[in-house]
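Allow me, if you will, to draw on your knowledge of protein folds for a short while. I have a record of one protein: its chain in single-letter code and its fold written as discrete structure tokens. The full record is reproduced below for your convenience:
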Amino acid sequence: MSATRRRVYGLLAVALSGLLVAAPARAVVSAGSTPTALHDETDGDAAADRQAVSREIERFRGSSISISQAMAIAEARHAGATTADISFDGGAGVPVYRVKTLHNDRIWRHTINAATGELIGGEAALPLAELDHEDRSNLAVLGTIRHRLADAVRVAEQAASGKAISGGLVRERGRLNFAIVVISGDDLKEVILEPPGARGK
């Protein structure tokens, strides 16, 4: 695999996993061929970026496990866990979902096979105390709101008429929102959802 291709896959995986999620009071759908986060500002090779995104979409469509199923699988590992972030990664040999769940003051990282739903490798846990203040604050809010990422995924898929490929929490203008990337036709759409009860937190 060429260095450029690895960089494009890396950018795609980072961009898709860089989003964090919950559930909606209102939805804003940004239409376009690729969310801004998926563009490499330093690499002028837009055609290579589009090809990488197309390959990722193709691998996602060939997966039998949905994003909602992957979240349920990861959350079932620890009773009471909630998903904070999920992304599809088709750049590896086996397409997987990378899922981060919150449980008992820890972030648990899971890798779920997108074809079989099996957990790949073990789990990794990171104490919340090791995160920066903003991340801890965002996760604290996630624990207090009634809606979950799974709720946001359902709303985003309906709003954008497609299937979610990633989601997570983002803070925009001081407000915590869910950001969901949805495949709609051959396009990626970013759906921003404000969870009820998150305003002002």
